[in-house]
Please model this.
Amino acid sequence: MTVKDRQRLDDHYSRQARKQGFPARSVYKLEEIDQRFKLFKPGQRVLDLGCAPGSWSLYAAARVGERGRVVGLDLTPVKGAFPPQVKTLTADLLDNNIDLVAGEAPFDLVLSDMAPKTSGRREVDQSRSLELCRMAWLWAGQLLHPSGHFLFKIFQSQEGEEFIKSLQPYFSRINRLKPKATRSQSLEIFVLGQVFHPDPAHLSIRLQPEGG
Ligand SMILES: C[S@@+](CC[C@H](N)C(=O)[O-])C[C@H]1O[C@@H](n2cnc3c(N)ncnc32)[C@H](O)[C@@H]1O
Model:
């Protein structure tokens, strides 16, 4: 795909998001992953880390329906109207104040589309992204329902790869994904851990090679 084709595709996603009432095009990344892995079911409880401006929370709310719950958290206050099953909180995840959301647990899905402000220095950005992922996992490990799923965005790096591998004992399957709506020059990939096992000791015979 040429740079021009890519630009056209990016514009297409942005226009489509506006038309469909989503504040960010990132919704199509989640939609693609959902269509492939059937992430959501009506009535589920979802934690959406790095939720601003709100596309993923809106999408999740529609998929879990009125009986479901979506709790979104971001550094930036989220504006705009959300259905009643959505609650948004303004906080820095790195402050590690898990009590903010613990009362809403357990969650069937923990999502993190968090991204650091990019500095333009590749190694700095990779390490900040990894820091956010580690904290998201620290929360997910405590807040996920057994058999729940953890989806997070990470800027690829050697250390990031080691982190992803360290999660393998806790999930039946781990997939690395690059949805079509991801800008081609982006370092980001998504990682989906499916079927959480809080106690990995029971899992050793069920580990599978990674796919993606
Ligand atoms: C790509 S945007 C998320 C877009 C969102 N998924 C949507 O569809 O609207 C990444 C978000 O991560 C948030 N973020 C970055 N660092 C954070 C932190 N330490 N705590 C909470 N949110 C953070 C940013 O404020 C930003 O809104």
